[in-house]
Amino acid sequence: MHFFEATILTGLLLLAGCATSTIQTRKAQNIIAYNAFSPEVWKLVDQGQIKVGMNTNAVFIAWGRPSKILTDESSNRLISTWIYYGSWVESIPYWSYTPNRYGWGTYDHRVLPCARTYVRAEVVFQDDHVIQWRTFPSPADQAR
Question: Is 26 in a helix, a strand, or coil?
């Protein structure tokens, strides 16, 4: 294999590793767990939906890897909360001043795009099964 071919192959492998996780890819990677679900759970997972009673495998396939996992123990039972973050771009207006060679300057109104994150959803598990979940609207949607 020539250097050029090896470089292209390495680049393609790196890009494949950075590919976005989808329900189909997560299902293929966890096919044994997926096949153990009931037909009702298959249908929900395939639509990217979850419900109370699902196990962590079903939620992972439906929604993907959580952004953060919090754990707690209560009455000898393990409680886990999966947090999913979302993001939006907020436009921050500001003024800029540009001096010129005559001592005068101009002010320009500009907008700075700023990436923001928020908690998009949380899923609470007790003994590896969903006992509660909720989603939150994007702050960008609330501002409209």
Answer: helix
Strand 129-135 versus strand 68-74 pairing type: unpaired
Contact predicate 77/105, CB 8 Å: no
| Residue 10, token pair as written in the block | 């390495």
C-alpha 56/C-alpha 80 separation (Å) is 10
Integer Cα distance of 105 and 134 in angstroms: 52
User: What are the extents of the domains in the chain?
Assistant: 3-142
Three-state secondary structure call for residue 65? coil
Global pTM?
Answer: 0.72
Task: Please give the backbone phi and psi of residue 85, each rounded to the nearest 5 degrees, phi first.
Answer: -95, 150
Whether the pLDDT of residue 134 is over 80: the answer is yes
The residue type of 130 is: V
